[in-house]
Design goal:
332 residues; alpha/beta; Rossmann fold; 2 domains; 14 strands
Length: 332
């Protein structure tokens, strides 16, 4: 069992996307509570997965973090609201309204309605997220946990695939690739449209600069973390840091627990070993937390220090232990 660090860093900034990222952050927060630390946690969340549906702005990664830390998540699925119903989805399908492959739950719908109304009123996404977090994060976590979108600007991650029906090569939104196609078709490339023009949201660069430790959560390097790093100035800010940066591998024995990270690494990076994960963050990380099942496959990491642990986050204790490893096992 991994021992908790004696003293947590005063300020931790986490780059995150997806279910794995949200669960890891939950572990960091529970570690903070257990140790009685006043560590400030700032989460910079991916917005490349964002999509407009039925006139509503949907932010899957932001919402997954909010719901997970606010005890509103469906723990079985890892996304969406618990105790969800799907009457609106059924009615939209009855009208023949597309897309039918992406469903918005009735409880979840309220979040998207509020977000879209505020955006239409002129508030930037960062201000909207702060307002939503007053419900989900502030009551339980106070000022010790902040959630920031990577950018207020529109960024959409698209995957270049061979269309299963036409056979033609085309780019589809990540949500279509993952939900409609179930990531069953190879990804030829990943493009974060708009990222080259997107500026970091207020507080993002400041959170990176002020951090005593940077952590890249166990998220898909291509569709969860790369869009964050692609926004103007963020990659440079991480590369020029003066503090350690630790990444947690999203793969166990070369397989993803959830999502298409293993398929993408196999196709785009040439493999799914720890060295292939580390290469996604070349020049950005000092250490990589890998699962104990990968202990015999640690060649090729170069200057990146491997930290071996149990990385499967089965429950709250496992999440806390993994967070303790990432926060306490950093290079001196």
């Amino acid at each position: 069992m991994t021992a908790a660090p004696r003293e947590l860093p005063p300020k931790v900034t986490v780059l995150s996307g997806g279910v794995g990222g949200a669960r890891f952050i939950q572990g960091v927060q529970r570690l903070r509570e257990r140790t009685g630390s006043d560590t400030e946690i700032t989460v910079i969340a991916n917005t490349g997965d964002d999509i407009w549906l039925h006139g509503l702005k949907v932010c899957p990664d932001l919402d997954t973090v909010m719901y997970t830390l606010g005890d509103g998540i469906d723990t079985d699925r890892g996304w969406g609201r618990k105790d969800e119903t799907w009457h609106a989805k059924e009615e939209l399908a009855a009208y023949g309204v597309e897309p039918t492959w992406f469903g918005l739950g009735d409880r979840d719908l309220a979040t998207h309605l509020v977000r879209t109304q505020m955006l239409d009123a002129g508030y930037p996404l960062s201000a909207v997220t702060e307002a939503l977090c007053r419900r989900w994060l502030a009551p339980a976590h106070g000022q010790g946990l902040r959630l920031l979108p990577m950018s207020d600007d529109r960024v959409e991650t698209h995957i270049v695939i061979d269309d299963p029906e036409s056979g033609e090569r085309r780019a589809v939104h990540f949500q279509e690739y993952w939900i409609r196609h179930q990531a069953a078709v190879p990804a030829h490339s990943v493009v974060a449209i708009g990222a080259d023009k997107a500026t970091p949201a207020p507080g993002v660069l400041e959170a990176i600069a002020a951090a005593d430790l940077l952590v890249i959560a166990p998220s898909n390097p291509y569709v969860s973390i790369a869009p964050i790093l692609a926004a103007r100035g963020i990659r440079d800010a991480v590369a020029q840091r003066s503090v350690p940066c630790v990444a947690v591998s999203p793969l166990i024995s070369g397989r993803a627990v959830k999502g298409p990270a293993d398929q993408m690494l196999a196709t785009l990076a040439g493999g799914t070993s720890p060295k292939h994960v580390a290469r996604c963050y070349e020049g950005l990380i000092d250490a990589l937390v890998v699962d104990e099942s990968d202990v015999l496959d640690l060649e090729g990491l170069g200057s990146v220090r491997p930290i071996v642990a149990r990385t499967l986050m089965r429950d709250a204790d496992a999440r806390r232990r993994l967070a303790a490893t990432a926060l306490g096992g950093v290079p001196a």
